[in-house]
């Protein structure tokens, strides 16, 4: 159960991280944001990143083996990286219609899945 809760928190964390890191690239399309300066964009992104930490820190605390969770530190990191790329890819495909997901990206994802397999192999 802690494993699923950890992964769920990591997914939420990565949604906010992706919005903070890349969401501002779409701000110009929104009337209220179109004339924002760089400092304002940074502050908004920082505010979004704060919510990332509200989910990331508990996910790592709950999921870490030495705190009673099911994952080693390395496993937590690999899970987080794979979730980051999946969340980013979904975000990119939904909000950046000019970007494409090509066969080589799919091959890269297969290698990431293999990385997860080998990291978790006993």
From TrEMBL:
<keyword id="KW-1133">Transmembrane helix</keyword>
<dbReference type="InterPro" id="IPR007437">
    <property type="entry name" value="DUF486"/>
</dbReference>
<feature type="transmembrane region" description="Helical">
    <location>
        <begin position="76"/>
        <end position="96"/>
    </location>
</feature>
<feature type="transmembrane region" description="Helical">
    <location>
        <begin position="102"/>
        <end position="120"/>
    </location>
</feature>
<keyword id="KW-0812">Transmembrane</keyword>
<dbReference type="Pfam" id="PF04342">
    <property type="entry name" value="DMT_6"/>
</dbReference>
<protein>
    <recommendedName>
        <fullName>DMT family protein</fullName>
    </recommendedName>
</protein>
<feature type="transmembrane region" description="Helical">
    <location>
        <begin position="36"/>
        <end position="55"/>
    </location>
</feature>
<keyword id="KW-0472">Membrane</keyword>
């Amino acid at each position: 159960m802690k494993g699923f809760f950890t992964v769920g928190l990591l997914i939420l964390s990565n949604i906010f991280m992706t919005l903070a890191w890349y969401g501002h690239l779409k701000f110009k399309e929104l009337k209220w944001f179109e004339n924002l300066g760089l400092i304002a964009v940074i502050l908004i992104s920082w505010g979004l990143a704060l919510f990332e930490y509200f989910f990331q820190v508990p996910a790592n605390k709950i999921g870490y083996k030495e705190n009673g969770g099911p994952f080693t530190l390395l496993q937590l990191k690999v899970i987080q990286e794979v979730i980051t790329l999946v969340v980013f890819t979904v975000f990119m495909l939904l909000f950046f219609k000019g970007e494409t997901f090509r066969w080589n990206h799919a091959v890269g994802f297969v290698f990431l899945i293999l990385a997860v397999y080998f990291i978790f192999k006993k």
